[in-house]
Design a protein that fits this description.
seven-stranded mixed sheet, tt1808, chain A, Rossmann fold, 25 strands, about 775 residues, 30 helices
């Protein structure tokens, strides 16, 4: 018997004997795939996780079973069963080979052989030993799946929140990585509460009144749209102009959406939220709750204290760190955590690479040959990244960075550039539009607090995946959290990142899945990649320390004398900083401007924040490259002839490595100016790629050694096309097009060469020299001049 036979003929009869699939409300899920498999190039996936059986009773998944062939010991399935139960947040798991059943309790650690699978009621009582009416009602209410079904971790998050509500817990926290669907989870929680008519009185007589509280209009609008499965009259968007128009806050709905600004503003300096009775809302959901500041003077703290009777659910993407300790102190430990690492490994979030770019002007020391345009320079002071664009501005430095960025990225891909402040964001926007390839005036736009409704419009258009304009956004703080734009391919850091929380939030702008997006790239001009090396990158939450949080204290000192409501700490501080002396503006000596040098290094990081080799990263992204060659010499021999090369590429294509995948790999290792041979050689043997230009220069003496003038002239033309377009120009099928391009007709080409055979042999024979090993290459290749 194989494993399938063991399941069908031995394990399933045992399950039916115990009542599974027989007793009402009991179900058996067979071959339950619960992850998508890690994302790889070309739309491929790594191996997803699949449970052989999941046991469901009264609407809840209760246990997982790992089945093994009858010929194997039952213990062979134990480790897998435990792993699946841990990921699915199940208390019980089993391993079985059809002869024996091994049971593990994930809560107590008790495990061992049992005679039969427990009956549905028995397993239910083991999982939920205490009776709870509302927990049972929540479980019996199905998820809303007309739009999409929840992923396994989303289902767990919903169940854990509802369990906390059933247990009458007042403050609840969920921590899930950016892009993992926190708003969808909030929707499913709201759906179950609405359908079961849960409310604070717990009498089931009315639908609950639920407030979704965000700190930006676009986030409240996103949530409102994501809740569209509810009846239209059940939802209301609370807006200041509507309140002023009607003369009162809206009350005739079940689900309310608003932002802090709206609730904190009101007539005669009184907040609008005060127009509601303090017990009006049954549940308040605070999106991106770490941004509000849970300290005594934080944005939403006063609102939540006023609505103290309500159950309060905080949603955040940031694990507990010293920078957001107050949030965790207010809400308590999360009822569920789903990390960035898990999201990438499970295939629900996109992997990334980091491209570190440094220039010789990352630091600046004034010398007398530079011109001071404005302000006062400190003689002998070394200006560093934290000073640039805040106290000192050097336009040539920013122009160099913009040119480097545009040279690195695909200019047709959506990109966000994070700048030092709003003024800097405007300057970078203008430089990008000056140097861009596109002819569109709104190719790059700024989206900051100062851009108002126009900025919001730009952001809506950027988020629309059907539109390619605007293509690049510049910002300072506004887009660091909460913006759901799935097709972002590049994140550019041109300002220092304050802490690891902010860094993770910014990284989260690129992690959302999108068709054809296998990875995204972080272009790091400021050294922020070092946060990956922080042991807290994706580790365990830290305990609260007695350390004073300088950032909070600085914020509070400013806030005490100004408006009580702040939408964003960084934007507020920037907008309200005291008037200082003029920024120092420097114009570099022309020689210095032309001599700015740069160095770019690619780093690869695992989802857990651990550095990895390029080979490991590529294996994670591609899987194992098919073994169509044994060594480097064999690869060279195959590649040196157009016929064998074409057959080899066809085999790669059949194995899932077509032209699109190879092109993506070329871009990934920054070898888009190299031959595909160099790319394969790098993946297989870790040999650093050279450019096509360098390859031609190194081989030209051997290529032209015994050729006549006409052959040499033709090959110079062919090689120029190779340098420009790549190895595809050397395919035998491309020869007629090259001849027509060079000689206008095949007939003229034959007359020039003497025969078709001479043309074909010339075209094929030179290629073996192009791929001869370059033993001692000069470090500085000259350009091949055609």
């Amino acid at each position: 018997m194989n494993e399938a036979d063991t399941r069908a003929e031995l394990i399933e009869p045992m399950l039916r004997t115990s009542g599974w699939g027989v007793v009402a409300d009991s179900k058996i899920l067979r071959e339950y795939y619960f992850t998508d498999g890690k994302l790889q190039i070309g739309g491929k996936r790594g191996k997803p996780l699949k449970a052989d059986y999941v046991l469901i009773y009264r609407g809840r998944k209760l246990a997982v079973i790992e089945a093994k062939n009858i010929k194997l010991k039952v213990g062979e399935g134990v480790a897998q069963a435990k792993n699946y139960a841990e990921k699915l947040y199940l208390d019980t798991c089993f391993a079985s080979n059809g002869k024996e059943i091994y049971q593990i309790c994930m809560q107590t650690g008790k495990e061992g052989l049992i005679d039969a699978f427990p009956a549905p009621d028995e397993l239910w009582c083991k999982t939920f030993p205490e009776h709870n009416i509302w927990r049972d009602k929540f479980n019996e209410q199905p998820f809303e799946i007309r739009t999409k079904s929840p992923r396994f971790y989303q289902e767990t998050a919903v169940n854990n929140v509802l369990a906390a509500i059933a247990d009458e817990k007042q403050r609840i926290l969920l921590t899930l990585a950016t892009g993992s669907g926190k708003t969808f989870i909030a929707f499913q929680i709201t759906w179950k509460l609405f359908q079961t008519r849960w409310n604070l009185q717990r009498d089931g007589k009315r639908h609950p009144r639920i407030l979704f509280l965000a700190d930006r209009n676009i986030l409240a609008d996103q949530a409102y749209n994501d809740f569209s499965a509810f009846p239209e009259d059940a939802m209301v968007r609370i807006k200041p102009d509507e309140i002023r128009k009607k003369g009162s806050v809206p009350t005739n709905a079940s689900i309310f959406f608003t932002i802090f600004q709206t609730f904190m503003s009101g007539k005669n300096n009184t907040p609008y939220f005060g127009e509601y009775p303090s017990d009006f809302f049954d549940l308040i959901i605070i999106d991106e709750c770490h941004r509000g500041g849970a300290n005594d003077e934080g944005n939403w703290r006063g609102i939540l204290e006023y609505f103290a009777p309500a159950v309060q659910l905080g949603l955040t993407a940031t694990p507990k760190r010293k920078y957001n300790i107050d949030t965790y102190s207010y809400f308590g430990e999360p009822v569920y955590i789903y990390s960035l690492k898990e999201g990438i490994n499970d295939g629900f979030l996109t992997p990334f690479k980091v491209r570190r770019i440094q220039t010789t002007l990352d630091e600046y020391l004034y010398t007398s040959d530079d011109e001071i345009i404005e302000g006062e320079v400190e003689i002998g002071k070394i200006y560093t990244e934290t000073n640039f664009n805040k106290i000192i501005v050097i336009k040539e430095r920013e122009a160099k960075r913009v040119n480097l960025m545009l040279a690195e990225i695909n200019q047709q891909e959506k990109t966000i550039v994070f700048c030092a402040n709003q003024e800097h964001a405007a300057a970078i926007r203008d430089l990008i539009n000056q140097f861009k390839d596109s002819k569109q005036p709104n190719y790059c736009v700024r989206v900051t607090a100062n851009d108002g409704e126009l900025g919001e419009q730009y952001l809506r258009e950027f988020r629309d995946n059907e539109k390619m304009l605007p293509t690049i956004l510049t910002t300072s703080q506004k887009l660091s959290t909460g913006i759901d734009a799935r097709n972002i391919r590049n994140i550019v850091l041109m300002r220092p990142i304050n802490n690891i929380i902010e860094f993770k939030q910014i990284i989260g702008r690129g992690t959302r899945l999108f068709e054809g997006k296998a990875f995204f790239t972080i272009y790091d001009f400021v050294g922020a990649y070092q946060y990956f090396l922080d042991p807290e990158w994706d580790g365990e939450p830290i305990e609260k320390t007695i350390e004073t949080l300088e950032m909070n204290q600085e914020f509070l000192r400013v806030e005490e004398t100004l408006e009580p409501y702040i939408v964003n700490r960084e934007e507020f501080l920037e907008a309200n900083e005291p008037v200082k002396k003029k920024k120092l503006k420097i114009k570099l000596n022309d020689g210095k401007e032309r001599e700015i040098q740069h160095m770019a290094t690619t780093f690869f990081w695992g989802a857990d924040g651990k550095p990895m080799s390029a080979a490991e990263f590529l294996k994670n992204l591609y899987g194992k490259l098919p073994s169509f060659f044994c060594n480097e010499a064999e690869l060279r021999e195959i590649w040196s002839n157009p016929t064998t090369r074409q057959a080899f590429l066809a085999k790669l294509d059949e194995a899932g490595y077509g032209s699109e995948e190879l092109r993506s790999l070329q871009i990934l290792i920054n070898a888009d100016k190299s031959d595909l041979f160099d790319v394969l050689e790098y993946v297989a043997f870790a040999i650093k790629p050279i450019t096509r230009n360098e390859r031609v220069f190194a081989a030209q003496n051997k290529i032209f050694a015994f050729l006549n003038y006409k052959q040499k002239e033709f090959l110079e033309f062919v090689l120029s096309k190779y340098i420009e377009g790549g190895v595809e120009e050397l395919a035998q099928e491309k020869l007629p097009f090259l001849l027509e391009l060079k000689y206008h007709s095949i007939h003229d080409a034959v007359e020039n060469f003497g025969s078709k055979e001479v043309i074909l042999n010339t075209f094929i024979d030179f290629q073996k020299y192009l791929y001869i090993p370059i033993a001692a290459q000069d470090a500085s290749f000259k350009l091949f001049n055609v």
